[in-house]
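Board notes (copied after class):
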Amino acid sequence: MNLVLDYSWGRPDPTWMKRANITGVLRYLCDSPGSTGKKLTPEELNALLNAGLSVAAIWQETVDAPTKGETAGKRDGQRAREAMKNLRAPAGAAVYFAADSEKVTAKQAASYLAAARPVLAPYRVGLYGGIDVITGTQKILGEASAYWWQTAAWSGSRISTRLHLYQGLHRGNFGGHQVDGNTAYGNDWGQFTQLTN
């Protein structure tokens, strides 16, 4: 198992993260409405990769986007694809779409992901959420249909047996920056280590 950090406005030093045995990071492709500075930039991405860290992407503008259905899934999938292309991310890399609210149901998340998947190609969809939305969406779409990232929030002590990532630490401090800590299960959690030409 590997330790992976996700963070929004903080920017821990990539070299320091590598020395601390962090293996990768998850970073946002977009800023939330009304806020700036959360988005991964090409310069930051280069610094992370040059330090030997793996990177995967997160798409989240609101906490409950999957409740908006297929139309939102298609729109967000298209926008995430353009963001990944602009960063020169390689085909096959994952974008985790956030169900960051207990209001999101598995049925809604499945509909949203199913709409995002074809327009996101050649990138792969992932889902972030609590255990009920993760396991419920897996039952609807199939376990092999996406990357799965469960948060301890809304999960109690339950952890799915079919995960790529588990977010157990919220708002920890790393080098003076607020981060969340995640355990990566297996060697493939949708990350990439180099850019396309």
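Comment from the instructor: The two ends are 31 Å apart (CA to CA). The beta strands are 2-6, 22-28, 54-59, 94-98, 124-129, 147-151, 165-174, 177-184.
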